[in-house]
Task: inverse folding
């Protein structure tokens, strides 16, 4: 983060599974909270405010969409593109179904060939090191397809990496 930037993190859940191929993604915010995410972020030196969930209403006539294909760029090239486009800061939007299902099985649309555990952490740590992170959203966690909240734990670890915790 920028040296003069706020050391505050607001956690806001958006329980919505519209557009997901399977039901259950709307339980993702609760699964993240079960990981103890707020306390872990506090341990990194941030002031944390859990703002709860945003009430979501689905317009009549809309239903979950078809599964989407995920395209994953090579990490170094992606990081160079991000740095080139982010003079005002980075908002990281991390869809957990962009990870390989062996890393995160409990996601909305699991597709083989996604990011490995190390690649995902490298991406998040590179963004943290840039000091440009101003916001982040994490989506597509589906606790109904998960095993012992494993995917939520991986997602929480990635959030912490984006905020400066290093594993690599």
Result:
């Amino acid at each position: 983060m920028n040296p003069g930037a706020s050391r505050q993190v607001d956690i806001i859940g958006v329980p919505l599974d519209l557009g997901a191929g399977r039901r259950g993604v709307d339980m993702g915010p609760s699964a993240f909270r079960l990981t103890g995410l707020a306390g872990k972020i506090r341990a990194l030196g941030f002031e944390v405010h859990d703002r709860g969930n945003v009430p979501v209403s689905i317009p009549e006539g809309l239903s979950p969409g078809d599964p989407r294909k995920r395209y994953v760029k090579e990490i170094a090239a992606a990081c160079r593109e991000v740095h080139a486009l982010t003079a005002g800061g980075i908002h990281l939007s991390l869809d957990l179904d962009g990870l390989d299902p062996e890393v995160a099985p409990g996601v909305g649309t699991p597709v083989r060939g996604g990011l490995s555990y190390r690649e995902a952490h490298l991406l998040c740590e590179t963004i943290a090191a840039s000091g440009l992170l101003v916001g982040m959203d994490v989506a597509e966690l589906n606790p109904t397809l998960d095993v012992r909240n494993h995917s939520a734990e991986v997602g929480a670890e990635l959030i912490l990496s984006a905020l400066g915790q290093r594993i690599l």
Notes: The CA atoms of residues 106 and 147 lie 7 Å apart. Residues 67-74 have pLDDT under 50 and may be disordered. The longest strand covers residues 47-53. The first helix runs from residue 28 to 34.
